[in-house]
Specification:
Length: about 325
């Protein structure tokens, strides 16, 4: 039987009984997670070495802080926090899970922006990490952010049950690595014809959806699953959140592709119109702008439908699905 916080007498997500969450209320809730995440990451990236560490090199730490603080929507941590809130999991633990997935995300951006990858000069409206520092430092900063993510999940303060911590580590590793985000990036580069003797490949819709589910969707899907794992939710709840997370991951990438095709660089915070120039496989390139917009609307509806078992408790996550479709950056 699917059990949520409201059914067990908690407060928070279960208190939302008044129908659709308006945009202002959603923004306030998201802003709270953004502020909490910024404070947590700031503390985690302090200068003092932890037990087992010899020192924290200043330039490396500065680059890690540059890559992860002072920007970003923090949407992945938000999904982790709100998914865990469905079941009354302690917020401080959910924030640790959110911080772990955000560190993986920030590492991936620092590496993706490198000349050997996407070769971007601008990220979040400011110079990319390798431009602000140098390529070697950006690589090492990404390596250190990735490692720190798993450090967080292994800590007892994330959850007192070692079995839960192991499950979180495994789930994030699978989402981040060979069969997830990193594998998706490799497929993306191959499709661009980036390797010796390669030619750009025209991927069909199914192959493109697989690529995007790995490169972008996997971490978003983990963010929802991570909240359920942390809360030790039952199988039915986990399955519902997995359906939601899968749809959200697809929707986020389609929205991103549309922003690249139509967005203003000043608003988006990075260069746009790069996908077509690089012959990237996207649903926009396959279906056109109108077709991609229809696909996005269908994915938002799919995400909202997946939350039906949670009733009114799922309204924050429903609003998150709408936010994905409506965002401008």
């Amino acid at each position: 039987m699917l059990t949520t916080k409201a059914q067990t007498g908690g407060n928070g997500a279960g208190e939302m009984r008044s129908g659709t969450l308006n945009a202002a209320a959603f923004a306030a809730r998201l802003d709270t997670v953004v502020a909490d995440m910024e404070a947590l990451l700031d503390g985690l990236l302090g200068a003092a070495p932890l037990a087992g560490e010899r020192s924290r090199p200043a330039r490396l730490l500065d680059a890690m802080r540059y890559a992860s603080l002072g920007g970003g929507k923090r949407f992945r941590p938000f999904l982790a926090v709100e998914s865990a809130a469905l079941f009354g999991a302690p917020r401080e633990r959910a924030l640790m899970v959110g911080a772990a997935v955000e560190l993986v995300h920030c590492y991936s951006l620092a590496h993706d922006d490198l000349p050997a990858m996407d070769n971007d000069d601008l990220r979040r409206g400011r110079p990319t990490t390798h431009k602000a520092f140098d390529e070697a430092t950006a690589i090492l900063a990404g390596d250190a952010l990735l490692t720190l993510a798993f450090d967080l999940l292994a800590r007892p303060e994330t959850h007192p049950d070692a079995g839960v911590r192991i499950e979180l580590v495994l789930a994030l590793a699978r989402a981040s690595g060979l069969g997830g985000m990193v594998g998706g990036q490799m497929i993306d580069l191959a499709a661009e014809g980036r390797f010796a003797g390669g030619e750009p490949q025209r991927l069909d819709r199914q192959a493109t959806e697989t690529l995007e589910a790995m490169k972008t969707g996997a971490l978003l899907r983990f963010s929802c699953a991570g909240g359920a794992i942390l809360a030790q939710a039952d199988g039915a709840a986990r399955a519902a959140l997995d359906r939601y997370g899968t749809a959200i991951g697809k929707a986020f990438q389609v929205a991103d592709d549309l922003l690249d095709a139509e967005g203003d660089p000043a608003t988006v915070g990075k260069a746009t119109n790069k996908d077509a120039a690089a012959h990237k496989a996207t649903l926009v390139s396959i279906m056109g702008i109108d077709g991609a917009r229809r696909a996005l609307a269908d994915l938002v509806a799919e995400a909202e439908a997946a939350l039906a078992p949670f009733g009114a408790d799922g309204e924050v996550l429903r609003a998150a699905a709408r936010f994905v479709a409506e965002r401008s950056h």
